[in-house]
Amino acid sequence: MGDQLGIIVLIKQVPDIEKVRFDFETGRLDRSSAEAVINPFDLNALEAAVQIKEAVGATVTAISMGPKAAESALRDAIARGADRGILLTDTRFAGADTLATSYALSSAIRRLSSFDLVICGEKTIDGDTAQVGPEVAEFLGIPHVAYVEEILEADKKRIIVKSRMGRNYYVLALRLPGLITVTKDVNAPRLPTLRDKIRSRRAEITVWDADSLSEVADTRLFGVSGSPTTVARVYAPHAEKRKGMIFRGNPEEAAEKIVGVLKDLRVVG
């Protein structure tokens, strides 16, 4: 992509997690029960890409997989600084687990052929697996760094980041092309202006179906047919309320009763 970095941001449209209902029979979220928004961690990824664009020059392409309605998420991404939006939409993508999702997204990136950096949110609030970013990197055969909390430097050849793993921080230099996943601590996503929102409404969203990726992918590995994992059972854990007990009698008798209860509960030996 010339002298500019080619940055790809993977975004997902998710339901408002505070309002969405869960279908325990199917084991899936009832996405029609709440307003759809961009996954919050993906907003951090998009902001990171736009900040690099402003600092050193870059073109930012946002890619999403979902129903036709997910175009609104890509328009929001363009309003926030992305240059282009690509939507993967096809019934053959439906029901994908993280592996099939990663395969489809990596196939779209492979079709673009030219890129330097892929940025993803750490995880999605409707799945919470944090698997898609690293899996995309593995499918593309590129290095990756997860849990990035700060981007220290970026140019055409490498990106230097600070990543938190457990209790420790690591400063890592990643040779490009590469992929990073960012946490919510990496930045504060900007709000789009009214002018940007109006501009994004006129933007053309590129739409690819499964056949559009057939030259770079095996379409049998999309969606349910390409998903080795399934939800076997979903249930709400039983929550016991706190119980209170009153021990009467003199202090010695009360103490013996308390010790007896603690032994029954195996709190003490």
Spell out the blueprint of helices and strands.
Elements: E1 5-10, E2 13-15, E3 21-23, E4 28-30, E5 36-38, H1 40-56, E6 58-65, H2 71-79, E7 84-88, H3 98-112, E8 117-121, H4 132-140, E9 144-154, E10 158-165, E11 168-175, E12 178-182, H5 194-201, E13 206-208, H6 251-264
Parallel strand pairs: 1-6, 1-8, 6-7, 7-13, 8-12, 9-12
Antiparallel strand pairs: 2-5, 3-4, 9-10, 10-11
Helix pairs in contact: 2-5, 3-4
What does this structure look like?
The protein has a single domain (5-226), classed as 3-Layer(aba) Sandwich (Rossmann fold). The protein is built from 6 helices and 13 strands. The strands form 3 sheets. Strands 11-10-9-12-8-1-6-7-13 form a 9-stranded mixed beta sheet, with helices on both faces. The protein has a two-stranded antiparallel sheet with strand order 2-5. It has 269 residues and is an alpha/beta fold. It is elongated, with a radius of gyration of 24 Å. It has helices spanning 40-56, 71-79, 98-112, 132-140, 194-201, 251-264; strands at 5-10, 13-15, 21-23, 28-30, 36-38, 58-65, 84-88, 117-121, 144-154, 158-165, 168-175, 178-182, 206-208. The model has no long low-confidence stretch (mean pLDDT 91). Helix 3 (98-112) packs across helix 4. Strand 6 (58-65), helix 2 (71-79) and strand 7 form a beta-alpha-beta unit.
